[in-house]
């Protein structure tokens, strides 16, 4: 039998699945062919969800740490003991002594019931801010009033050029590829701007590889050329925007030759970009998350917004500066799920979690982790482990023994998406929502999280906190939906929410002025320059650490969710090296190298990259081993806007520790390696 269900992974694509269970019990997942984005295909991460469901390594019973051992215990014991820890904390220091750390490991609507539990206690300490995309969200809020994206069909049908700027669509947003192809078949040009090599660049008319973190300069220098050449949309600047004059006069600070030196992008390429935005119409810009993971990440997104807006690509079919899809929030009543009203919450920032924990007064006594693996994913993870060590009781809810679970006192097994009913409502890009249905029963003793928190509330003598059932909660959260839409969602497995396919076409923006704001009063209020501005003095430099380490999202798996992938779990990560790194350090493909900075060091296998910025090292985030996670390398610095981790402002050096060996010599190679390391 086929069951329509949904992919809950935090991703641009938010796919709809069709699941089939074979007689052998094997679950086959495929894409729902009717879904206009999924179009019948899913990625390796999606398929892995079935493997994860049935994996031998899955946690199937509540576990309690005793010394160095994990002892299986009953749910009754787990709930009783954890309730006791909660009670003690409430008595000793109050509800701020309880931390709920969560992230978006699942995009299920009902997952927010976790928060309901803590708010029901009167409040808690809670993680806020973003390891992901907040600087860019805030930048677009200053400029447009909200971060909206055009429908992909609009790009496919109307764009004359597509600029994929800092987004690795071939890895992280694969369902975009057919739309790009469709536009290219019509004759649209494709330009890729990326610090690292990308598969998509092979299909592109042009690839530009700036020095990491410098794209804002590139955009503003290109805009200066457009200003000087008169390649501007004067009607837009006059009728639909404010502050152009302020920005226009600020552009003189970006000298073309200097920008070329800082960005490592030749002057001809900066001109190429200016001409593309200035003379082609319309240009669709697809922005990635990577570019705003820097100290000036927010300004960088504002700079690109300004380039595209001034040259006439905002509010027109086939245009847009597409970073995120934030138009869908109004369709959901999250308060109906979280019941937050009246709760007293102390905020701790995800990007600076370790420091916030160490400084907390009152201190955290009980920490709950849901939908996340912070020890692998939060910057400065060495310090985080240290901070967690001081917490009396740590409870991790997950399906696997993650790097965070390894540091816990209790690990509680939750259900996998294929065992759950939920509305999957998080999309970073399009405007579809999907419905998850149970395909198979929960394995072992795994329980849905809402049930875990219901049991805990009962153990605390507070069952009213989690009163309700799945159907009621869903109906309450979707009460703004038109009659019949929920039934359609359940029947088809997905529905489209009605938002404009071309954003800002009516010229009305959600900014204070109601116009596009080249000069933003909100930015000034928040302590920033009114106009997009990049300061070269703020690029990180360290004579001892000449290269940038980019710990980007893995091609084949979702960040730290690699438990079922032997090739991802090896003892050594792959370090992809730009040509400059390889040449300066005398490294060849396959050599063993040590990647290090002041905080961490790891032995990796080198893969030399012919394309990309020459002085960049890339490792895929989520790997851990050799006593470290890759976030042992990163620092907890913030980007300029919002609350955003500047994870890619990370410098490193690389040295060769052993030569490459051919397959036959591998065994003795290991000895050679052991001797040299
Ligand atoms: N396969 C896979 N897909 C995923 C995920 C995953 O883990 N695996 N994760 C999902 C999530 S949570 C997110 S947030 C998204 C992230 O999706 P992306 O935005 O695509 O990915 P990032 O890893 O944040 O950024 C990596 C890209 O940014 C580029 N980049 C980095 N710094 C710079 C710079 O300074 N300038 C320019 N021009 N480019 C730069 C890199 O070259 C790389 O192409 O992907 C989602 N999709
Ligand atoms: N250095 C560096 N660090 C990064 C990034 C980077 O590019 N570089 N990217 C950042 C980004 S964009 C993001 S979004 C964050 C993400 O950070 P996380 O969300 O912590 O990342 P994941 O590794 O996907 O871990 C999710 C965990 O949730 C579990 N999980 C899945 N579904 C459920 C569920 O329903 N309930 C519960 N309880 N658990 C569930 C999974 O098994 C997994 O262990 O990481 C950030 N960290
Ligand atoms: Mo993310």
CATH topology of the largest domain: Dimethylsulfoxide Reductase, domain 2
**Low-confidence stretches at least 5 residues in length (pLDDT < 50)?**
none
What is the oligomer described by this structure?
single chain
| Overall pLDDT level | 96
CATH superfamily of the largest domain: Dimethylsulfoxide Reductase, domain 2
Structural domain tally: 3
Which descriptor suits the 3D outline?
A: globular
Largest sheet: 8 strands, mixed
**For the record, what CATH class of the largest domain applies?**
Alpha Beta
State the secondary-structure class: alpha/beta
What proportion strand? Answer: 15-25%
For the record, the CATH architecture of the largest domain stands as 3-Layer(aba) Sandwich
Family: Belongs to the prokaryotic molybdopterin-containing oxidoreductase family.
EC number: 1.7.99.4
Pfam families: Molybdop_Fe4S4 (PF04879), Molybdopterin (PF00384), Molydop_binding (PF01568)
GO molecular function: iron-sulfur cluster binding; metal ion binding; molybdopterin cofactor binding; oxidoreductase activity
Short description:
The chain is an alpha/beta fold.
Main features:
677 residues, alpha/beta, Rossmann fold, Dimethylsulfoxide Reductase, domain 2, Barwin-like endoglucanases, 3 domains, eight-stranded mixed sheet, six-stranded mixed barrel, 30% helix, globular, binds ligand MGD, binds molybdenum atom
